[in-house]
Amino acid sequence: MDRRAVRIVRCQGRHYYKIHGYGHFEGLGVEIVSNDIPSDPGKYPEWLKKMRSKYRTIGRNINQFHYWSDSSNQYDLDRVRRGRRLLPQVLVSIYLKQAMGYCTGTAPEIPRLDDGKAQFFYIIDLDREVLSINFHTHWKLDRIPRGNDGWLDFMVRSQNQLRYIFSDHVNPDHLASLAVKLPGETHTAIEYNHRLDIAARTDLLKAHKIFRTNAVVTTLVAHRREMMMLGREWSPDSFPFREFAFAFVSIASGHVDYHPLPGDRCHVQDCRDIRQYLDRDSPHCTNYHVDDCFPYLHRDFAGNLARLQMFGHAEYKTDEPQGPAPKGTIYWHSGVLVSLVLEFSGRAITEAISIGIEQGHADFQIVFLSLFSVMFVDVSPDGSGEPYARCSKPYHLSPLREEYSPSTHPVDRPQWLPGLDDVEGVRWEHLMQNDGVSSVEDMQKNYPGLAALVNVFDVAESRIVARAGRDRLPPEIYARVLDFVNDYDTWKSCSVVSSTFRFECQRRYWINQNTRIAAGPFESSLDDADGQISSFSFHFENMYVGEKLWMRREPTRRNYLEEHNWRPVVGSGQNKAIILQANIQYKSYDDGLDETENGEDTDCTDSSGEVFDLSEHYDWGY
C-alpha cells in the first residue's frame, strides 16, 4: 500500500506544492532525486538557474492575475476557473484539490502541513539549495549520493517510527541545516537598572480571558506542525514569523474579529465526501466549500468582510510580501511595545527600552516574543526618575520547544540510541490535540506563555482606560446602562470610558456583532474515542435574536461543523486575514450540562492604581 506525499518547491519564500499518491522513498523520492535534480555537477548550475527563473515567473503571474471582479471588488470564482487556461501549471480547480489533493494555486508563504493526509514530505528549497525529506533529513542539492540510490542507505528509522534520521556513516559535507543561526547574546547585560525573574500571572479566572486564551491556543494548535517543523527556519523579520506573532498578540489583546462560517453541515474547509473527480461511483458532497489554496475567502463566506485575505497568503502589491502584520520587528500594539526575537538577551531588552524612552514613554510594558517563548518587561521611573526595568523569566507558549525542531543540522541533534524512546520529542504531539479543547487548568499548565500574554494585555488596556478618565457614576449605574446596550460597537465604546465601566463590560463580553458571554466559565467534559476530554462551557446570548444558549467548547468531529463556530480575523481596515484553520466551535445543549462553576467574575478592582501585574501577589514597592 502506497502513502500520500507532498512535493513542495520553495522559491523566494513561497511554496508551490502538490500532493502525490506514491510517496514512498522508493517511489516519489527516487523520482525527485533521479529525475528532477541533475546528477551531473556541470549541469546543476544551469538547472538551478532555470528552476528559479521558472518559479519566479509563476509567482509574478500569480501576482498579476486578478481574482476580483471589476464591478463588486469581490473574489470571482468564475474568473479563477477561466484563469486555469492561462496558468494551467499553477491554478487548479477547487474540486480537484479537494478530491485529489492538488494545491498549487497561490504559493503561500506558510504552507499547510497538518491536513492529516500526507505521510511523506519532499521540499526542494531553491533558495538555500537543500532537499528536505520529512523535515528531518536535509541534503545539499548538489551533494546527494546517487550511485545505486545510495542516499536511501543513509536514511534509517528513529525510535519514533514516524521520523527518519541519517545513519552515522553519512558524509557530513553532504548535509545541510535550514535553521536560522541564533545570535548567541543571551548573556549580554541590560544597560538599565533592573530586576530579573519576576513571576508572570498565568491564572485565568474571568470569562473574557478564558475565551481569548482558548482562541490563541486554538490558533497555535492549528499550526503546530508548521511551527515545529519550519519555525526555526524563520527569522523575526520574515513573513511567517511576523504573521504568527501578530496573530498571537492580536487575539490575546482582543483586537480581533470572530467570523462565523456556515455550520450544522459538512466541514466547509476540509469535507471528506468530495469525490466527484476522483471516483464518480463513491459518495460525493454537493455543498459549496472553502478552498484554502486561494488567497481570499469567497464572498459567499466572507459576507460583509470584503477582500478577506487567507492567513499565510501574502499580497504582492510591491515586490515584498504583505499581510496584516506590521513590517518591522518592534512595534506598539494595544499600548504595549512588542519586540520579535529569536532569543532573549540583555541587548534586545536594552534596545527595546531605549526605543520606548526615545518615543516619549516613561512608564510602559514590553513583550518579547519568539515562536516558542515569551518574556515580559515593565519599565517605570524609580525614585530618582531613572528608568527601572522589572523582567519576567521566559515562559513557554506551548509544549513546543526549539530543541525539538528538525531544521537544525543533523550532526547537531542528539543521536537516537537503541532501547531509548524519543519521549520528549513527541510529547508535544500528544498534548496538542483536539483543536485546542482543554480544561482551563490544562490551558494554564500547558500554555503558560499564552495565558500570561492575555493577562499582560488585559492589564495594559486597564491602565490605558484608567488614564483616560475617572468614574463619575456609581458602579450599579454602569451595570444598569449596559442592560440597554444591544450592539457591539456601543459595547466597545463603553469599555474604554472608565475602569468600572470596563469591568462591567468584561462581565458581559461580546464575541462579535451578534454574540456575547452571559455567564461562566463552567467545567465540563465530553466523550472521545480515547476517553473523556476536559473542556469548559459558557452561557452565550445571541443579541440579534435574543436567544440564550448553554454551549460547550467542542473539537472538530469527523466531517461535521457545529452551528456555532468562529474563525479569528486579524488586522484592520482593508488589510485583514482570516485564520481559517483555527476552528473555535461550541455545541449547544438545551437541557444544560453537569458542571461545576469555575472562576465566577466576582471581584471588582480599582484599575486606576493597577501596576503591570506580572504576579498577582507580588508587592512591587512603588
Radius of gyration: 26 Å
Number of helices: 15
> Could you describe the largest sheet, including whether it forms a barrel?
8 strands, mixed
What's the shape? globular
Give the overall average pLDDT: 79
Number of domains: 2
- The span between the termini is 68 Å
Overall SS class: alpha+beta
Number of strands: 25
Low-confidence stretches: 66-104, 275-282, 594-622
Helix content: 25-40%
Beta-strand percentage? 15-25%
Region (Disordered): 591-610
Biased composition (Acidic residues): 591-604
Organism: Ophiocordyceps camponoti-floridani
Protein name: Putative F-box domain-containing protein
Write the SSE topology.
Elements: E1 5-11, E2 14-20, H1 25-36, H2 44-64, H3 77-83, H4 94-100, E3 102-103, E4 120-125, E5 130-133, E6 137-140, E7 155-157, E8 164-166, E9 193-198, H5 207-222, H6 224-230, H7 239-253, E10 257-259, E11 265-266, H8 299-302, E12 309-310, E13 330-333, E14 336-340, H9 346-358, E15 364-369, E16 373-381, E17 387-392, E18 395-396, H10 423-431, H11 440-446, H12 448-468, H13 475-482, H14 488-494, H15 499-507, E19 515-528, E20 531-542, E21 547-554, E22 560-561, E23 564-572, E24 575-578, E25 584-588
Parallel strand pairs: 1-4, 9-17, 12-24, 14-15
Antiparallel strand pairs: 1-2, 2-3, 4-5, 5-6, 7-8, 10-23, 11-22, 13-14, 15-16, 16-17, 16-18, 19-20, 20-21, 21-25, 23-24, 23-25
